[in-house]
């Protein structure tokens, strides 16, 4: 008998059934969400300034990569928890090599009151990396072209600028929103005298798409399932009304334009997403209430908070952790917002021991709570409900883009810690796609639309996009809106 088939006590069994119903998203609901999602993609392409909608930011990547791109490029990826610095060698013939280092972003830097601290930190990491690559001294006669992966909603009038619309992923640094982040970084780079020039500013999702398209021509979309969530795809200029009349003549109506959707903000108006009271609480208590509705229900930054809130409610009902009083340290930890991260759920879901001993160790090491088998089984089932909902909701953006662009066969390049590390996420997402497209009976590996693991999208993608932009510039072609 499997662990999951074992029965819970009557009170917990009744409780878990309530949460099961709250977190399950049936196919009918998915289809309604997808239909509304398509209309929101179109609305964002027409305007994109409504805070209740999806920005649909033009990324100013106006060409598909063909695998022939060559050159050496620096790339940086500013993510939710880490900064990566990469040296990419584009070799042509769909091949590349990389060298990289990862730097942890100090937690306090996410909410520092001085923007110079963040951009100074990035410049320090660039300097450290270049010194690693050139122990004899950073070359003075060479200019390093840089692709900057800035994984936050930004407005762009060209490939070399990006005005931050709003912080996400727990960042909240003043005097950055409404500013172009390229000169903010270049100011700190120049202070250090580093021979670096930014040739392209992109989003990690755009990089994921381009890097995967470089090696796989069936790739039609890039997605991030991690600390945040997002999608990017190539649309056509004629489908983007907000750009009409703003482009040079060499950009034809049928020309491709890479769109960085920033659809973590999908349904900020709360029209279709099936929010629970826990989702509403997370939103109300977040730094930006009313923003990033889709992200708050699907991304890795919030899944740990969901299970914490549910377990706290269950404890307060007197159903679990009965030997711990409200004043003891263990329960104070359970009462602390964001005390648990998504790895807590991942470890519990991956625990295949008969007595859930790995889960026991996780409770002991994270919350310092000694658990009964029934409490561990209860937490495991909660993790399954939360993880399954995140995966099923996540495919709504993919389905909407594929239906909108009429992609019958496509590969979706995916990156991010949730896709890579959360147990069963790819399988649950594939099942969600099968449900909405009617692929019952077709093996997952034979699905017409498949989610594939993307290779180093944000680093390699930034380099490829910088190379594409350089090629356009050499041909005298437009890189942005009319000046």
UniProtKB/TrEMBL annotation:
Highest taxon of source = Eukaryota
Keyword Nucleotide-binding annotated: yes
Any one GO MF term held by the record is: ATP binding
Catalytic activity line of the entry: D-fructose + ATP = D-fructose 6-phosphate + ADP + H(+); D-glucose + ATP = D-glucose 6-phosphate + ADP + H(+); a D-hexose + ATP = a D-hexose 6-phosphate + ADP + H(+)
Q: In which pathway does it act?
A: Carbohydrate degradation; glycolysis; D-glyceraldehyde 3-phosphate and glycerone phosphate from D-glucose: step 1/4; Carbohydrate metabolism; hexose metabolism
Write the Enzyme Commission number(s) for this entry.
2.7.1.-
Which Pfam families is this protein grouped with? Hexokinase_1 (PF00349), Hexokinase_2 (PF03727)
Q: What positions does the domain Hexokinase C-terminal occupy?
A: 220-468
Residue intervals of the Hexokinase N-terminal domain: 16-214
> Enzyme class, one word?
transferase
What UniProt keywords are attached to this protein's entry? ATP-binding, Glycolysis, Kinase, Nucleotide-binding, Transferase
The keyword Disulfide bond is annotated on this UniProt entry: no
Q: Mind telling me which GO cellular component terms the entry cites? A: cytosol; mitochondrion
Which InterPro entries does this entry report, sorted A to Z? ATPase_NBD (IPR043129), Hexokinase (IPR001312), Hexokinase_BS (IPR019807), Hexokinase_C (IPR022673), Hexokinase_N (IPR022672)
Provide a GO biological process annotation.
Answer: intracellular glucose homeostasis
> Which protein family is it in?
Belongs to the hexokinase family.
Describe the subunit structure: Monomer.
The UniProt function text for this chain reads:
Catalyzes the phosphorylation of hexose, such as D-glucose and D-fructose, to hexose 6-phosphate (D-glucose 6-phosphate and D-fructose 6-phosphate, respectively). Mediates the initial step of glycolysis by catalyzing phosphorylation of D-glucose to D-glucose 6-phosphate.
**What's the protein name?**
Phosphotransferase
